[in-house]
Design brief:
Rossmann fold; six-stranded parallel beta sheet; four-stranded parallel beta sheet; 13 helices; alpha/beta; homodimer; DNA-binding
DNA sequence: TGCACAATTACAAACGTTTGCAACTGTAGG
DNA sequence: CCTACAGTTGCAAACGTTTGTAATTGTGCA
C-alpha cells in the first residue's frame, strides 16, 4: 500500500494507462474513449480522489484565493464586509484568506508581504488608522496583482475603490438633527487622519452652514481610538456644559458613550438631547433609548469589493480604477425622536 | 524584459549560474562560495525576489496554512477565537483560512471538502447547530490530516478538543443566583442538540438540586437560534407570569431579551428579577442594568486550538486526543446585585 | 496490398522550488 | 607527474497536475 492521498498517478498505474489519459478522463475530454473515461471516474470515486490543490495552483498560476486585509476582525462592520466578500468569492469558486492588522501599520506591512508571493490572486484592503505610507501596496501594482480598496482607502494608489458616501451620511445625520429642532449640535468623531472621519465632519459642517447654525471648537471632538470608553471620557465636559441639544457621533459606540454621560448628568433622552450615531450596530437597537444611526452597508461593500476584484483577476488587461460610492441611509430610532 | 514575478531562474540566468546554486545561495548554504552567495542575495534583493509560495508548497507538501471552520463570523466569541488562532499561527509562520458555515450543515460539508485537497496542513472546527452527521470530518482522520475541535465538538471523532467547562459555568451561574437569594430560577438556553447547551442546563439543574430548589418544565426554555428576538419572544410568557425571581440565560443576547420583557412588564431590575447571562459580550457592559455573565475565553480557546494543531502537524506520528477544558468565570454586574 | 485517416493513447514539457549526486576545478602531497 | 581531496558548481529528479504533440492502433477504401 501507499501512504499519502491518492493521486492521478495511482489511478493511472492501477488502470494501466498514462497519467495524461487519467487527467483527460477526469475532465470528461471526448478524446478519451468513453469506456476508459467511465473506468477512470469510477476508480477515482472509489478512491475518493481529489485533485491536489497546490499542484493545480502551480500549473495554472492561480490560487483561487483572495486576500483580505482589515484593521479589525472583532468588529460588526468588518465582519459584515467579510461575509459579503465570502459570499461572492465562494459563489465564484474562490477561497478567502484574512489578515487583521490590529490597526498596526507594521503588521499591515507584514501581512501584505506574506500575501504577495503568489499566495493570492488578488487583495482587498482597508488600511489601518496608523498607516501613512503606502509603499507596501505599491508593490502589488508593480507586480500587477489585482488590488481593491474598501472603506478606509488610500488615494495615492490607482486601484478600484469601494467606499461609503461619508460626507453625505454626515450631512444627512446632522440635517436630521436640525429638522428635529436642534440648534446647537456637537460632533464626536474618530481619528481625523482617516478620510472617512474628515468626510463625516465635512458633511456635518455643510449641514450646519446650510441652516445658518454655528458650531464651536469645543463642540468638535476627535477620538483617536473611537471606542466607547474614550468617547465617554472626552465628551463628558461637553455634555456637562449643557450647551448643546444635539450630537452627531461618527460611531455608535461614541454615541452610546455620550448618552451614558447625558444620563449621568441627569439629562432626559431624547427630550434634552438628541443623538444620532453611525454604523447601525446591533447594540443600537437594544440600548435605551434605541439609537438613531446611519446605515453602513458592510455586506454590500464586501460584495462589491469581491466583485471588482474577481472581475479584475479575470480580465488582467483592462484595469479598473473606478471608485464605487455606496449610500448611507438614516435610521431613525428613539434617540432622535421628538413628539 | 520578462513579464511575471522574478524567479530563481531569472536570477540564475542573469548571474550565469545554475538554479541550484541560486537556491542554495539564498538559503545561505556554505557549500556555495561566499562571493557567489553575496552576489545572488544582492540581485535577489534588487529584484525584490520572493519565493513562489505555491512551488514551495508543492515541493514540501506543506502549505503553512491552517483551516478554520466556524458556524458564524459575525459573532463576538468566534471573532475572539479566530484572533487567538491567528496570533498563535502567525507567530509560528502559518497563515489561516476561514470558512464560516453560517450554521448550515450543507455549507460545512462543502467547506471541509474544499479544504481537504492539500490546501491546508490542518483544520480547526466548531460544528454547526445543524450538524448531526460527521462523515465529512472522518475523512480528515482517514487521510491523517490533523484536526482539532473547539467549543462545539463532535464526540465521535478521535481528535484533540478544546472546550469550555459549560457544566461548571452553568452551575456557577445558577449557584450565584441562589446565593443572591433567588428561589425560583428559570433557564433560557440555545439549541439543545448542542452539547454545550445540554451541559449548561445540567449545571443549572445540579445547582438547583444541591440547594433543594425546584424548577418547572415551563421554566426551561430552548431557543433554536439563540438570538435576541427569539429569546425575547419565547421568554415573554414566563416573565409575565411573575413566577420567577431569577434567570440564567445561556447567552447574553437571550438575557437581554428577557430583561427587555421584564422592563416591559413593569418589573424593576435587579430588584424584582436577577439575571445572569453567558459569554461576556461587550453589550453586557453597556446595557442598563449591566449584565452579569459567565466569561467565555474565546481568545484562549483559539490559542490553545492552534497550539494543539501545530503540535500535531509538527509531530505527525504521535496523535494527541486529549480534551482541554477551559474554566469560565463569573462576572458580577448590576443585573444580579442585591444590596 | 497499401494508404489515408480517425480514434485512442502515451510521451514529455512545463509551473518554481529543493536536494542528492555527479562533475569540474585547483592545490598539495607523494 | 599523478592522485587525492577540498571547494564549488551543475544536472536531474521530484512534488501533482495539464496539454501540445507524437505514436500507436484499427478501419475503410482504392
Amino acid at each position: 500500500m501507499k501512504k499519502g492521498p491518492v493521486t492521478i498517478k495511482d489511478i493511472a498505474r492501477e488502470l494501466n494507462v498514462s497519467v495524461s489519459t487519467v487527467s483527460r478522463a477526469l475532465a470528461d475530454n471526448p478524446l478519451v474513449k468513453l469506456e476508459t473515461r467511465l473506468a477512470v471516474k469510477e476508480l477515482a470515486k472509489k478512491h475518493n480522489y481529489r485533485p491536489h490543490f497546490t499542484a493545480l495552483s502551480l500549473r495554472s498560476n492561480k490560487t483561487k484565493t483572495l486576500g483580505i486585509i482589515i484593521p479589525q476582525l472583532v468588529h460588526e462592520f468588518f465582519s459584515m464586509v467579510i461575509r459579503g466578500i465570502e459570499d461572492h468569492a465562494y459563489a465564484n469558486g474562490y477561497n478567502v484568506i484574512i489578515s487583521s492588522s490590529h490597526e498596526s501599520y507594521e503588521r499591515e506591512v507584514l501581512d501584505t508581504k506574506a500575501l504577495i508571493n503568489g499566495r493570492v490572486d488578488g487583495l482587498m484592503a482597508c488600511i489601518s488608522k496608523e498607516t501613512k505610507d503606502y509603499e507596501h501596496f505599491k508593490e502589488f501594482v508593480d507586480r500587477s496583482i489585482p488590488l481593491v480598496f474598501f472603506d478606509c482607502i488610500c488615494d495615492e494608489i490607482e486601484a478600484p475603490k469601494v467606499v461609503l458616501d461619508d460626507f453625505d451620511a454626515g450631512y444627512q445625520a446632522t440635517k436630521h438633527l436640525i429638522q428635529q429642532g436642534c440648534t446647537s449640535i456637537a460632533y464626536v468623531g474618530g481619528p481625523i487622519n482617516l478620510l472617512i472621519n474628515r468626510d463625516r465632519l465635512a458633511g456635518y459642517n455643510k449641514a450646519l452652514s446650510e441652516a445658518n447654525l454655528n458650531t464651536k471648537d469645543d463642540w468638535i471632538i476627535h477620538c483617536d481610538s473611537g471606542d466607547y470608553e474614550e468617547g465617554r471620557q472626552k465628551s463628558e465636559p461637553l455634555i456637562n456644559s449643557k450647551e448643546i441639544d444635539g450630537i452627531f457621533a461618527a460611531t455608535d459606540m461614541l454615541a452610546i458613550g455620550a448618552m451614558k454621560n447625558a444620563k449621568k448628568a441627569g439629562l432626559k433622552l431624547p427630550d434634552d438631547l438628541l443623538v444620532v450615531g453611525f454604523s447601525n450596530w446591533s447594540i443600537g437597537t437594544l440600548y435605551e433609548p434605541s439609537l438613531s444611526t446611519m446605515s453602513q452597508p458592510g455586506y454590500e461593500m464586501g460584495l462589491k469589493a469581491a466583485e471588482l476584484l474577481i472581475k479584475q483577476i479575470d480580465n488582467p488587461e483592462q484595469t479598473i480604477t473606478e471608485t464605487f460610492v455606496l449610500k448611507s441611509e438614516l435610521i431613525v430610532r428613539e434617540s432622535s425622536m421628538t413628539d
